[in-house]
Structures are given as C-alpha cells and as structure tokens.
Amino acid sequence: MAKSKPKYDVPSLKTGFGILEHLSHFPRGRLLSDIAEDLGCPLSSAYRIAVALEDMGLVTRDLETKQIRLTNKLLLTGQRAITETNLIENALDIMREMRDRVVDTVLIGVRDGSEFVVLDQVIGTRMFCFVAKLGYRIGLYCSAPGKAILAALPEKEREEVMAAIRFERHTERTITSQAKLRRALNDVVKQGYAFDDAEHFEGVYCIGVPVFDRVGYPVAAIWVTGLMMDLDRRRVPEIGATVRAHAARISAKLGFSQG
Q1: Is residue 213 within 8 Å of 150, Cβ to Cβ?
Q2: Does residue 181 contact residue 175 with C-beta atoms inside 8 Å?
Q3: All domains of the chain, ordered by start, with CATH?
Q4: pLDDT tens string 82-106
Q5: Are 140 and 161 within 8 A, CB to CB?
Q6: What's the number of CA atoms in the CB half-sphere (13 Å) around residue 9?
Q7: CB 208 within 8 A of CB 147
C-alpha cells in the first residue's frame, strides 16, 4: 500500500497567494485594509506579507493613494507559461487573415522589461519580404510594437519602464531621448497605431497595435513589417486601421471587452 504524502501547511504562503489572486481582480489597486477584510486575515499579517511581496517586485504601493496593485512581474511570469499556447493559438489564424490583406509579414510579440521579444510570425507573400528571427529582442523605443505597448501601459508603469530605457542610435531616425519618445507616444494614442519609420533597421518599416487581456492590460502587440521601398506612405493610416481591427479581434478572444 502506497504511503500518503505528508501535508505541509504554510499559512503565510497561502495568504500571499491569496493577496496576489485578490489583486488580479483589481488592476487599479486595492487598499491593504480592504484586502485583509476581504480575505479574513489580520491586518498585521497582511501588512508583513504585502511588504515581502513588494520586496520581491510582485506588487507595488502607490505613495499617494496607498493602494497596492500587481506589477508586470507576475503578469510576465504567467505570460511566459501561456504565451506560446493561449496567445499564439488565439492569434495565428487572425494574423494569417491580416497578412493576406496587407501582403507584408505579420508578427506577434511581448514586452520583457524595456525590450520587445518576437514570438511568432506569418511570412509575407511578396517575392522579397521581411523575415524575423523568433526570440529576437528589440528596444521598445525604436519599434512599432514597443511604442504601441508603451503607449497603452498604465501611466506609472510606463514612466518606470521609460526610466530604464537606454537609448541607442541605430539609424538617423532613431528616437534618442525621453522627450522625443513621449511626443511619439502621444502620436500613437492619437493615431491608434505606432509607426516605425526605419528607426531600427534601414529600409524597413513597421506598424503595430497592442493586444489586451481581459482586464485591459497590454500583454502583447501585433504588427506588420516590410521593406520601405514597397510602402506607399499614403496608405499608412489605412494599414494602421487594418492592424488595429485584427488586434481587437485577438484581444476579444483573450476576453477583453471595450464595452
């Protein structure tokens, strides 16, 4: 007869996970006193555990409102576990449809810190088209998907990410300062899409839009990229609208509702 495995009860671990799970329902944050009351645990215990979670970078506390919310660290951890299945499974068919409309290569990726990582792609149908190396990393400040993600982040998190960016010039059009990047992000918000005007690779353009999860957090971005010589600049707004429409369909499959 097989021996049963011993059971170990770790109350602090359970409470810590309970706090994280509770905060997942409050993307804008929650007061610690409210969290403790909802979870039915002593405020002193909740405080000690919240401090530990903050030290681990899993939660952050707003100094003005005193509200606690999840950081992107936990989101990225979960993202890595589901990205290549849930996200890509929901996106590939839509990306193929988008590729058939825009002709050039369509890609999907996620943010990791101050960089953007390419996860998958649907190759364009032109004789000469752009092909990316999966896993390739590019700066947020010099890529359409990176700027699309930055513009969609909560303001405080966006400022934290921007403070960590190390600007490096790749072409004559590369953004090399926070001031210029902020102006570019304002344009992204107004236009509804981000445009990479050969800012990382000479002769290559990108047009990108964020993809949102069920709570409205920008977990990914999709974008079209191709050779600048094939781009009719008059069509950039039209292409941007196409990318936005297809990104919205992926977001909807992830549970996001704009209503």
Answers
A1: no
A2: yes
A3: 11-70 (1.10.10.10), 73-253 (3.30.450.40)
A4: 544 578 888 999 999 999 999 999 9
A5: yes
A6: 1
A7: yes
- Sign of the dihedral defined by the CA atoms of residues 186, 253, 116, 99, in that order: negative
> What is the spatial distance between Cα 259 and Cα 247, in angstroms, rounded to a whole number?
16
pLDDT in tens, 19-74: 888 888 887 788 989 998 888 888 888 889 989 988 888 888 888 888 888 876 76
C-alpha span between 248 and 211 (Å, rounded)? 7
User: Which residues are 212's β-sheet partners?
Assistant: 218
Q: What are phi and psi of 26, to 5 degrees?
A: -135, 75
Which residues have CB under 8 Å from 219's CB, separation 6+?
75, 79, 87, 110, 211, 212, 213, 254
